[in-house]
Amino acid sequence: MTAPAPPRPRAQGVIHDLGYARYAGERRPPSTLWHVIMRQHLAYAWKTRWRLKPWIVGALVITVGVGVVLYVSKNSIVGMLSQRGVGPTWLTAAIPYAYQWYRIPAFMITMTIGAAIIARDRETGAFTFYFSRPVRPLDYVLGKLTGQLVLLATIFLAGPILLALFSVGLTETTSDALTQLKTLPKVLAIGTLGTFAYATLPLAFSAMAPRRAIALAVWAGYYIMVAKIIAELGALLWLPLKAFDLGSAMEAMAMRLFDVSLPGEEHAPLWAAIGSLFVQGAAATAAIVVMVKREAEGSVGGSS
């Protein structure tokens, strides 16, 4: 009886991934991930014609228009609009009125980008991608918030700073130029707080809404109706409440700092305007962090 033949070894095939290539690019630390999210946010805003570009053009038109008024109204009646009757010069008086117009393109940016962007990520399932490691909730919040701050700064900081510098150039003496330079810190303060509030509040509504349409509707209702109604009640009952409306708060801050006013209109106190912009912006930032962290914890591979 012969021994059985040993089993033949099975042939094993090897599959080679010819498309694989080792990553040889720059390796950045995880702490810079928010930079990538910020750049993506800005790229998304600039991508189409209607999200950002028309409102930047609108802000530019406002800046040029006010600059023309500054130039042609030299020594005109503009300076007589001061609360005290003599008040600031024509150069100082014209700048605060620009904020009434700047808030229009700023609100449109909040509608096309700010109030929709986080809700859009939720709708499209992008959170699952973002919060697979190593992206943290803090990276996401910093990236989106910084990107939105940059967009709003082009409205509330770039234009007014150019107007302030232009007003310095229109002075005739060195002493007048040095005096006019004092408007620059005021413009920076107004623009910084306004940018902060207009950037964070729409993002907060977007973070809390399940869909873009809901976020846009709620934010528009809050900005156009709720805040306006509270501001009108404040004008009748308690003047500081008038600063609840973001646009009214910025206008009040500008008028109080520049010591000018519209005839027959009383603005909220300076402390109320500053407090409203800061407190609403801070509360909105906290809401964004809480909601994004909750979303990250519920996503696949949510990071800590």
What features would you describe in this structure?
The protein is mainly α and 304 residues long. The N and C termini lie far apart (69 Å). It has helices at 33-46, 53-72, 90-94, 99-124, 126-130, 137-156, 158-169, 174-180, 183-208, 212-236, 246-258, 270-298. 66% of the residues lie in helices and 0% in strands. It is built from twelve helices and no strands.
Show unreliable segments. Answer: 77-88
Cα shape = elongated
- Helical/strand content category: mainly alpha
* CA distance, first residue to last residue: 69 Å
Order of helices and strands: HHHHHHHHHHHH
Q: Specify the helix fraction band.
A: 55-70%
Strand content: under 5%
Mean pLDDT: 84
Oligomer: single chain
Count of DSSP strands: 0
Characteristic terms for this protein:
304 residues; mainly alpha; 0% strand; elongated
Secondary-structure map with pairings?
Layout: H1 33-46, H2 53-72, H3 90-94, H4 99-124, H5 126-130, H6 137-156, H7 158-169, H8 174-180, H9 183-208, H10 212-236, H11 246-258, H12 270-298
Helix pairs in contact: 1-6, 2-4, 2-7, 4-6, 4-9, 4-10, 6-9, 6-12, 7-8, 7-9, 9-10, 9-11, 9-12, 11-12
Task: Provide a compact summary of the structure.
With 304 residues, this protein is mostly helical. It has helices at 33-46, 53-72, 90-94, 99-124, 126-130, 137-156, 158-169, 174-180, 183-208, 212-236, 246-258, 270-298. It starts with 32 loop residues before the first helix and ends in a 6-residue tail after the last helix.
